[in-house]
Amino acid sequence: MTGKYPHSPIPTTCWLWGILLLFCAAACETARVGDDLDDIDDIDEICGNELDDDLDSLTDCQDPDCANLASCQDCLPTNPADSFVCHDDSEWWVDDCGVEGKKKQDCGQGCGVDNRCAQESKVKWCFDGPVSPFHSPALSADSVLYTLNSNTPQDWIYALNLDGSLRHSLISPTGGILGSAVVGSDGIVYLNQYRNRLTALYPDLSPKWTFLCEGDVHDPPAIGPDGTLYLFDSFMNFYAIDQAGQQKWRIFTAEKFNSGAVIGSDGRIFFTEPTGTILGQLHAISPQGQLLWSYSWTGWTRGLSLADDGSLLVSVSTTEPEKPNGLLSITAGGELNWMYETSSAVISSAAVAADGSIYFTTQGEQLIALDGNGSLKWQTDIPGGAGVVPSLALDGSIFLGGFSGVFFAFHADGSLRWQRTMSERITSNAAIGLDGTIYVATGAGRLCAFASTNGGLAQSAWPKYKGNNQNTAHQAR
């Protein structure tokens, strides 16, 4: 033995007691940690502090503890198309579902259901033609867009895909395309040209036939339910032409300046003409060319359209003292139904919504809405004015472009939905695709497509220029 503290073996009993103490300590520690976890399960998320209080990797509204709070609820309106208000030239949207001051930045690519306004009114594409101006576009039955351009002596017609890419194009051999393209139910494209021609083209824009009139043709043809085409020329002739390009009949009118014909759902043909310098007349003729009735008034005709009950809506302007401007409603039997007087000339034909509401524009830079009985619902200003027919969508929205270069979208109650400023004046009526895309042309030879969540063209008696996206001027219902 050496040193003060000799090394001696530890008794076996001491080792056993040591191992037992270590086991007890570990068991106690395990129990303590388990007790702490039970306590955490009882902790709730504190909503709105941007912290993960209950350590479940979810914060605030993401956490089930907060999900039912009103401040965490998404905006779920009855009508999604009316759940927002867009502000032109702004990267912000504001919902109108009662969440005051809620704003989100528009990512420009579509930020999901929560940010529908990211897509609303965005320009999808623009197609630039070589000359100007474009006329009102038409959509074919297979959703291919046709539009055309007028600038004598070399005019173009284009067939575009829905993404704005060129599908087909054709230079008019005689120049002077005078009016919008019209697309038949079989996809045949019709256009009227300077030098007295009505031309039929196949969907690829190759020629089918040409009909020669005595005089120039200024307004697009109307197409009846059996495919018959009806049009005027400048020599006071009114023609009925079959689908093979052959004349069925011809009648003579009193004046050479007439509105384009419109076709009722029963096949009757209606058109207006001036009589002398201050009188206008509306005529109804049978599909066989027989005069059925006429109605006269004081003033010039600026447009003609059809309501659900078969009555005619005539836009009237006059310079005669004490003779009113306004909109006439003539019954299907040729009698005055009502007249709504305006302070300035009505400069567009009317559009008719599914509920019977009537929309038109005036020279006084106003968009006016009437009910089906001719009573005023509302009116709103169009700065700079507009000479186009309003286009109506399935959700009740109203679209039209103005001379100032602003394209407007209104709700059915007349409140502004959005507006988009373009670089040139808007000269065409708008077409609305099945997916809600809006197609409109400008006076500088550009055709643009706007994104919109409107449900497509309204299913009504006369929802736009020429009654439908094909511009046939035929009332389908």
Short description:
Helices cover 6% and strands 34% of the residues.
Description of the structure:
The chain is mostly beta strands and 477 residues long. It has two domains: 81-120, no CATH class; 123-467, Methylamine Dehydrogenase, Chain H (7 Propeller), CATH 2.130.10. Helix content is 6%, strand content 34%. It has one helix and 35 strands. Strands 4-35-34-33 form a four-stranded antiparallel sheet, with no helix packed on it. It is globular and about 90 Å long. The protein starts with 11 loop residues before the first helix and ends in a 27-residue tail after the last strand. Mean pLDDT is 78; it is low at 1-10, 12-17, 19-40 and 73-118.
List the defining traits of the structure above.
2 domains; 1 helix; Methylamine Dehydrogenase, Chain H; 477 residues; mainly beta
Rough outline: globular
Summarize the biggest pleated sheet: 4 strands, antiparallel
Mean pLDDT: 78
Distance between the termini: 121 Å
CATH superfamily of the largest domain: YVTN repeat-like/Quinoprotein amine dehydrogenase
SSE topology:
Layout: H1 12-41, E1 84-86, E2 92-95, E3 103-105, E4 123-128, E5 138-139, E6 145-148, E7 156-160, E8 166-171, E9 182-183, E10 189-193, E11 197-201, E12 207-212, E13 222-223, E14 229-232, E15 237-241, E16 247-252, E17 262-263, E18 269-275, E19 279-285, E20 291-298, E21 300-306, E22 312-317, E23 325-330, E24 336-342, E25 351-352, E26 358-362, E27 366-370, E28 376-381, E29 391-392, E30 398-401, E31 406-410, E32 416-421, E33 431-432, E34 438-441, E35 446-450
Antiparallel strand pairs: 1-2, 2-3, 4-35, 5-6, 6-7, 7-8, 9-10, 10-11, 11-12, 13-14, 14-15, 15-16, 17-18, 18-19, 19-20, 21-22, 22-23, 23-24, 25-26, 26-27, 27-28, 29-30, 30-31, 31-32, 33-34, 34-35
